[in-house]
Predict the 3D structure of the following.
Amino acid sequence: MSTRALLLVLCAAVLHAGWNALTKRGGDPLAFLFCAGVLGVILYLPGALYLLWARGLPLVALPFVAATVLVHAVYFFALGRAYGQGDLSVVYPIARGTGVALVPVLGLVLLDERLSWLGTAGVALVVLGNFSLHHRSGTARALLAPGSGWALVTGVTIAGYSLVDKAGVARLHPLAYIGLMEVGACLLLMPAMLTRRAALAREWRTNWRTIAAAAVMSPGGYLLVLFAFQISKAAYVVASREISIVFSALIGSLLLREGALGRRLVGALVVAAGVACVALAR
């Protein structure tokens, strides 16, 4: 993986862990995400519109834009549900780890991306670290923590939009691409969210500062990922991005008081080792 791609992804990982922690701290995670999405549209759409005016919108990019809008709408809905039910340090690793596990397989089938042995080992370590973060002793029922189901759905959407976006940004500038994606996802979610106007108003009054921060961090972090997709394999980008799990483990245990710091740090370090392997892979 090139140094430039790695730096882009590492910066994106910090932003990603940050806005996910802010979302979990919100009173209503789904309302929080929608408010941040709408504000993100206001912030990023002018640049996207300028690029579309200057360069045009290639017709070959439209199917990918439509697909990513649909998948991202499901992603934000599922993520909001997951954070409404489960801990950050459980939901986050499951969602991200599922995406990491699926992308190499789908990338081989759909994009003919073949990983080196070191890259394969790195992806495997990332997945292993995620499982160790989620594992809980006790009965079989205890292994299915609150929010896990929605986290798995989120992980499937992560794999889906990663592959769609890898192909999409080969046809359209990343800023224009993410601008259209944010607008479309907000429009798709709007009918459902308009039935919760009171929750939206309450969330904005209570958390408008953190919503504003998330509105900058969420699209900004993914914009860096889109640039990385242009110069590196999708599986390497997705796996390297999971260094954010190290940050989420610390945030969840120390700041959100979710406990189990030792176990979560061990899992996070395994993830970090996997990311290191991916960074060295070609």
In short: Confidence is low (pLDDT under 50) at residues 137-143. The chain has one domain: 3-280. DSSP finds eleven helices and no strands in the chain.
